[in-house]
Amino acid sequence: MQAVDLPPPLRQFAGPGLAFIPANSGGTLGGMGEVAALPTIFFVVSALVFGLVVGSFLNVVIHRLPRGESLVRPRSRCPHCSQAVSILDNIPVVSYLRLGGRCRHCRTRISLRYPAIEILTGLLWAGLVFRFGVHPMTFVWMLFSAALVAAAVIDFDHRIIPDEISIGGLVVAVMLVPVAHALDGSPFTAAFMRSLIGALVGGGLLWSVAFVHARVCAALGRHFDHWPGEGESFPTVGQLDYWTWFPGLGLGDVKLLAMIGAVQGALGALATLVLASVAGLALGIAWAMTTRRWGVPFGFAPAIAAGALLVVFLPGAL
User: Fold this and answer.
1) The model scores a pTM over 0.90
2) Among 134, 159, 194, where does a domain finish?
3) By the 8 A CB rule, do 126 and 47 touch?
């Protein structure tokens, strides 16, 4: 079957990843022609549905991963009465609405955050397909956005970013990003080096800022509630904490930005850091107004995630 050449309005959304042989080259793609001819809305809606399902799984990750619990077993349960949630009561968004936002068994109210995370993930996935089309790298962006959502909410709740997300995401990104670009016809080695350099720049830049801040604070004798600790002296060069423990910024943020750099490249990581700084200021003001307390620490990952997603969606940012 001859490849289908899409009209200009659809070609911008389809992306070259729909067919690894150019549509005007006369090559054959088997069933890919029919895929390319499907309307854009089909892929966008499909991404929305799958995103809702993934968002439901992210709720499990967000609740269990910081607690060291299995993500697979046991089945989802009500956190109040511990009754297992049936399959019909676990349909993203629909079950929440059908049950009136309450547990079927104990009638305890279920947090609105559960369907909110499902909807957010669904909209992100739909937006990515609309933005980039059906393309190898679009799949990477989907995984990337899911990891950012999980990291942001976990850091908001616990002020930690699990290594499974940051380091695990970094390893996956270094492997998948070059493959995605290679499938699109770009040189694998160049894409691999871009990903590797992006990780080094992203993580290295944020680490440098945190390290210099820590050294300046130590030189000025400035103490924080958590650093270096009550009755503790400042870390010295021969101690690991000297290189990895900083006031106001966790090493998890450094590793998360390294993961972001592996996906977005060095320039994307730099843009993310700039936007994250602005988002962090806005979130900090909102947090202080909500708690009516100034100077209360909060996780930086939500701001980093917001900055990274803005870089993905803003035209010309990548």
Assistant:
1) no
2) 134
3) yes
